[in-house]
Amino acid sequence: MAAEARSAGVELLAPAAALGYYDGLVPVWQGDTLHQIRAAQHVTATGAIEQPLVFAGNDLPGVMLSGGARRLAALYALRPGGTAAVATATEEGLEAAVALLEVGVRIAAVADLRRAPEGPAAGRLEAEGVPVMRGATVVCAEGRNALHSVTLAAVDDHGHPREGSELRVPCDLLVVSGGFAPAGSLLAQAGGKGRYDPASGTFLPAAELPPGSYAAGAVTGLRGAEAIELSGRVAGAEAAHALGLGDARSRERLEQERSRLAGLSAAGPELAVPAASAAGGKGKCFACLCEDVTTEEIRQGVQEGFDSIELTKRYTTVTMGPCQGRMCQLPSIRLMARETGRPLAEVGVTTARPPWSAVPLGVLAGRPFEPAKRSALHHRHREAGARVKWAGDWRRPYDYGDPHAEAMAVHETVGVIDVSPLGKLLVEGPDAGAFLDRLYPNRLSNLKPGRIRYGVLGSDAGRIMDDGTVARLDEQRFYVTTTSSGAGAVEEWFSWWLADWRMDVRVTDVTQALSAINLAGPRSREVLAGLTPLDCSSEALGYLDARQGHVAGVACLILRIGFVGELGYEIHFSSAFGEHLWDALLGAGANRGLRPFGLEPQRLLRLQKLHVIVGQDTDSESNPYEAAMPWIVKLDKEDDFIGRWALEQAAERGLQSGLVGFRTSDGVVPTEGAAVLVDGAPAGRVTSSRFSPRLGQVIGMAWVPAPLAGDGAEITIADNGRTLAATVTTTPFYDPEGTRLRS
Question: Is residue 368's pLDDT more than 60?
């Protein structure tokens, strides 16, 4: 069956346990992974759990469920005892007795609660000369530290031995089978109800299950392999049809299988319903082996007024142990019914709380899932054949097959990249400008509406935390962008200081609500002009301008910036229109050589301009002076700002090291992180390196000692056992005057 499922395209997780049902979310534990699965339809096929018998001495070592004894014998060829007695209410008990015989265990006697057991197991036991008592069960087990004998007897419907029927059997193993209780906890957690079935003496799922839920197999009370497999086919077909799958033939086949299943259900194997507990033995009689709850304690609880199953559960802790009621709920319900005189259907059941299976705390305490953010354009990237990789907690297109060609398209015609993961904050209020002045080392309050300024966010120690752009929309509103990985931290940083300063400012994180696309290249103006009524000329929409308008009918904020070093427009808009606007740009640029490009081409393009990536080219100790951005620090600002004192000290101290560009002459691309050597000792590191097809050479960025941070300085890079010679530059490799991005 597993092979058949796999061939049909079904993903099987095994061994794996469904831990619970949380409003449609089903956590599944597999090894060291916690899957969180949300499906449109759920088929529960959790099987049934063998039940113990309740009698005096039932906690003695040597008393074992028939399933456990059979597994030891049939799967592992182990003998759980030398001489065994069997007490059963089902065919499974007899089958366990046969399995024990085959590994050399002597079966002293079998007590079968059924009146007329039939089948191959009964015939085999009869042929072996094993005495089988019909309508009988175990009434007590005897022993101190281990089982040494049991008493079997024919019993009435209340579990009382019939006079003269007792048989004492010396043995060191007692195999019991009190029937099977459906494992319906997941169904109950989903909102399903249970109904008492007098024929099986168990609670089965109600005929009307919660929407989107189906049940199959032994959890529905079915027994026998043929009926169980057929019920799975029926439930699976019903779930598929609910999703709109299948056709007239499959629906006709489903009706036929339903009819066949009804016939198999009616002809199920014989079973007997045990009494609440057997009478006639001395010693403690445990209803719950996990919590050591005896039948006497349940009786006392009822006498003291705890006469409902929910109250008894809390009074005695029955069903609250590790088994979560697997083997004690049904016996405790039967005892409650006997003590209160109410029908079992009226006593009812409790719902086992998740987790249904024992699960290591490490699985729950660690990260149960790895968050993966996807932009509104994610499926468009997949359709275009993008190589999608992790970028922080985002899934982003690394490239579309040829990163060098994608970069060249941006230089020669036009390219488009999804930059939706950029952090986006709306800062508004009468004090918004003053608030940003306190957070950034440069001035932002004097920014004119419709203009953009680059900003580097610093810590109290003057270290670079993040960077991005700040666009002033009007007198009281600023639109702030951050790095993709820094959005959450920046929003938290802003909120922290706002709570302390109590300024008249509101900060709203709109990162998830808005998408962004960067349209860049010498023909980008042509593409944009064909989709918007705005004047896209360099006079009307110049470098570092911000304009609000419609693109392809969508309200957008257009930022004229150039991270990749070419004429470019960053278009921000509601994520709901992501695919529409992406398609419109691709359509408008189809005849102009437009090509999507990914993160790798973008990294190459920005490296050619010596544009810094915070967190890659900087670390926790980098300040703006040493990161080659002294111009961004305005120590002559009238008011204080975060990190001012530390930056004043850094300016007075002078440079200890510097972030520079470099070229190599031998065509070898050094590894990012390779050491920069001075007198044979590490004194810096490479932060970025690529081969540039536009320049025809290897370029990179590196931290070097201050004396080497000047144009023309020669540095040595140690990389994987070899040394590379490189020449320092402090100006951009490509278009150093910025003519192209300002065009």
Answer: no
The helix (run of H) or strand (run of E) holding residue 340 is helix 329-340
Q: Where are the domains of the chain?
A: 378-606, 655-743
CATH topology of domain 378-606: Gyrase A; domain 2 (3.30.1360)
pLDDT of residue 113: 94
- The residues, any chain, with a CB within 8 Å of residue 675's CB and separated by 6 or more, are 682, 683, 684, 685, 686, 717, 718, 719
Q: What is the pLDDT of residues 388-435, one digit of tens each?
A: 998 988 999 999 999 999 999 999 999 999 999 999 999 999 999 999
Residue 43 is encoded by which pair of tokens?
């088929």
Q: Provide the residue count of the chain.
A: 743
**Quick one: which H or E segment has residue 35?**
strand 33-38
* Residue whose pair of structure tokens reads 């900060």 in the numeric block: 507
Q: Count of CB atoms within 10 A of residue 607's CB?
A: 25
Q: What pTM value is reported for the model? A: 0.59
**Looking up tokens 């059979």, which residue turns up?**
70
C-alpha angle 449-452-453 in degrees, rounded to nearest 5: 125
Beta-bridge mates of residue 554: 551
20 close to 186: Cβ distance less than 8 angstroms? yes
Fold of 655-743: Elongation Factor Tu (Ef-tu); domain 3 (2.40.30)
- pLDDT value at residue 444: 97
Peptide bond into 355 cis (omega under 30): yes
**H or E segment and range at residue 382:** helix 378-383
Beta bridge partners of 197: 202
Return the H-helix or E-strand segment holding 72.
Answer: helix 66-74
**Which of 119, 171, 116, 160 minimizes the C-alpha distance to 137?**
160
Task: Give strand pairing partners of 482.
Answer: 423
Tens-place pLDDT, residues 72-105: 998 998 999 999 999 999 999 999 999 999 999 9
For position 23, what pLDDT does the model report? 87
Tokens representing residue 627 in the block: 């990161």
Residue among 30, 696, 9 at smallest CA distance from 360: 30
Check if the beta carbon of residue 109 is closer than 8 Å to that of residue 169: yes
Whose structure tokens read 């306190």?
A: 438
What is the helix (H) or strand (E) element at residue 28, kind and residue range?
Answer: strand 25-30
How many whole angstroms separate alpha carbon 51 and alpha carbon 48? 9
Beta strands per DSSP E along 119-171:
132-134, 136-143, 147-154, 167-170
Confidence tier at 233 by pLDDT (50, 70, 90): very high
Whether 414 contacts 520, CB under 8 Å:
yes
